[in-house]
Amino acid sequence: MVAFDTETTGGADYDEICQIAAAEYVCGKLSRTLALYICPTCEMNQWAEGVHGLSLDFLSENGIAPEEAMRQFFEFVGENALLVAHNAGFDMRMLRQECAKFDLEFAPQGVEVCDTLALARYRRPDLECHALSHLIDVLGIEAVNSHDALDDTLACAGVFFTLLQ
Q: Which of 121, 126, 128, 161 has the most crowded CB, counting CB atoms within 10 A?
């Protein structure tokens, strides 16, 4: 299972991923992580920057090219993985959009996707809120929902495994 999360320059069709993280779990145990800052080629939405705190200046200094980031991410995921994300539809849309924008192949082979938001709504219909930050509190998961892609990836994995129990 590979949990993942993206942080973006916004949510529009022209926006890009500016941070991506993934965590691989084998038999329920964390085996490795990937966390990449990406230097976007578009402007940063002020609202998005307020959420994740990543400025274009920071990303220009610390980010890698989008093409390289996607190559590393898909190599990390490999084949025949279960991809898990909170609100997976958004993250998958951003991955497809990133690949299309930079003329990259959307590469996952044999990959299935699980959305922990949908899973939480199904397994815990009693909850009024299914936001990641609320779920980690209610489910007693030792994690942080900081809008840092790696922190949120680890929180998402905690929610996934807890909801499966």
A: 161
